[in-house]
Amino acid sequence: MGYIKFDKARVVNLEYSLSREILRSNRAGSFSCTTIVGCNTRKYHGWLVCPVDELGGERHVLLSTVDATVVSNGQSFNTGIHKYKGDYYSPKGHKYLEDFDIQDIPSMTYRVGNVIMKQERILVHYEEQLLIRYTIIDTDEPVKLQLRPFLAFRNIHQLTRANMWANTRTEPVPNGVKIRMYEGFPYLHMQLSSRAEFVPVPDWYLGIEYTEEQKRGYDYSEDLFVPGFFEIMASKGDVIVLSVSTREEKHAGLKAKFTRTLSTKIPRSDFKNCLRNAAQQFIEKRGENTNIIAGYPWFGSWGRDTFISLPGLALARKTEDLYAAVLDTQVRRMKGGLFPNMGDNDNPAFNSVDAPLWFFQALFSYGLGQKETWKRYGAAMKDVLNAYRSGTSFGIHMRENGLIYSGAPGKALTWMDAVVHGVPVTPRDGYAVEINALWYNAVCYSLDCARAARDRSFVKEWENLPELTARSFNEIFWDEELGYLADYVSDNEKRNMQVRPNMVLATSLPYTMLTRDQMKSILDIVNQMLVTPRGLRTLSPSEEGYKGIYCGDQETRDFAYHQGTVWPWLVGPFCDGWLRVYGEGGVSRVRKLIMGFEETLTEAGISTISEIFDGDPPHSPRGAISQAWSVGEILRIYTLLETKYPETEK
């Protein structure tokens, strides 16, 4: 039995199975995502979702799903499943499920009458191609297999409707057909490894519903186009591979290609391997750029998330070349000392005060050595520091006290960035605690690198700043009576003393302005009020405005996003600080926190870690089903425990 296994009785229970999703991605930027029974519950679900360069590089759902029907002894058994209005599911293929496995790739075994058929799906690494393998494990006599592709040809954030503008004609290709429903899209080639007949029965399937979109307050009904079906005869032991690709494929090699691609997969045989598998799914290589996708299924590449997640996603898997490629891609996108927070190459948004400062921490974690770091990235480091000191966009500038101040009307510039009706939910204009902790860290690290590289002019220009910054930081943020740091200080120097996790960064970064006693006091308070088994709350339950459940429409969810909702990525900085203060005596606490995430691998996104969790018990998973910094930070600390504290009692 595999590491992640599901009981048949649970899988066929839709209340259980529809809340559990499978994600697979490849390095070409494509992904495949659906529930464990193959019923799509989101507009973001699809068996082949690809970036389309001709349409701005955004991801588009080309293939929504494929229904496989087994015809045996004159009876038809459709293994697909779709939801329609009124909680009506048709067909109900999940009832034929005999077994489900995810250790290597999604594998579903169906029993229909006397026929046992296995279906397996895999994405090819660097191509926009999905391979589906059907194996007839057992049958008394030859059966007929019919494969119906459901096509969407639309942006992942939109839904499609039956229309007269769609090109519904198919064109023949070797052992299959190709179709392009709209101009600007690539042709979708559907080809089989064995000779098959394509029966053209073009039809729109109307009113397919996505329950997760309905819960989130969005439009949730769409029409999908089925151009017809492939029909093929099969006997016991036969293996048939269906290729769905944006390029024509040599059908004779499809079986071998499936086997070859499968052989490169890391089995999800334990917690670490699940994290490693999840980590590599965020990497996208397109042209000269290497990006980290912030989360699936709806996020793109975000600068802040990239720098925070990079150490865990890359170094924990010993992929230094990947680390450099991601850093270099980001440096090419710099503008005015800022990195893009989000947006595509043609329309980037630079509204992040912390992303450029996380760049320095990513460089520190890279471990190139100070001299080499300055040689490669010194120019970019100077650009950021000079921009922050002199002043750049969104009111970001250093004041005479050596601290960074930022703020712009209607903008939320820190990672707590939810905005409703043009007003930030957590307004933090002024001196933000983590921004200034990151600023001090960036300046100190840059000075050490410059000294190693003998850049005397830089050292002379900046060497007196850390002392000023540290003194001002403690004067403005530290509250001796309460024993912790203000979350932010506004322009009139009014402190916001809400208990939030941002102050943890001042305990975790390599260069800190705090004493050990200060760090211990902060961490003990955070441990008591914010730490949960799923990460750190964004606001203490004792504070006014705390919201412990994240659900409802977008406005309702945005009001809860940073008002108590739990974020797994914050476990990383907390564990760094905890180990710094408590040393080996703190290892058991850290290990318990990290290993506790093993329980989540069979919830929401299977074998990965969600973006957020509810602040209130039982801390249900919410948001994106797989998030880069969630996976990255937990894998980073897991690796730290494995390498630095291997002998500590587990």
Number of domains: 3
What's the CATH class label of the largest domain? Answer: Mainly Beta
Beta-strand percent range: 25-35%
Number of helices: 18
SSE-based structural type: alpha+beta
Overall pLDDT level = 95
Architecture of the largest domain, CATH level 2?
Answer: Distorted Sandwich
| Helical proportion, percent range | 25-40%
| Unreliable residue stretches | none
CATH topology name of the largest domain, in short, is Beta-galactosidase, Chain A, domain 5
DSSP strand tally? 37
Characteristic key phrases:
single chain, 650 residues, alpha+beta, Beta-galactosidase, Chain A, domain 5, Glycosyltransferase, 9-stranded mixed beta sheet, 8-stranded antiparallel beta sheet, 30% helix, elongated
Helices and strands in order, then pairings?
Elements: H1 8-11, H2 14-17, E1 20-25, E2 31-35, E3 46-51, E4 59-72, E5 75-78, E6 81-84, E7 88-92, E8 97-101, E9 107-112, E10 115-123, E11 129-138, E12 143-155, E13 171-173, E14 176-179, E15 188-192, E16 197-209, H3 211-215, E17 221-234, E18 239-245, H4 254-263, H5 271-280, E19 283-286, E20 289-292, E21 295-296, H6 303-314, H7 320-332, H8 355-366, H9 370-390, E22 397-398, E23 404-405, E24 419-420, E25 423-424, E26 431-432, H10 433-452, H11 456-462, H12 465-477, E27 478-479, E28 484-485, E29 488-489, E30 495-496, H13 505-508, H14 516-529, E31 531-532, E32 535-537, H15 554-560, E33 566-567, H16 571-582, H17 587-595, E34 604-605, E35 612-613, E36 621-622, E37 626-627, H18 628-644
Helix pairs in contact: 5-18, 6-7, 6-8, 6-18, 8-9, 8-10, 9-10, 10-11, 10-12, 14-16, 16-17, 16-18, 17-18
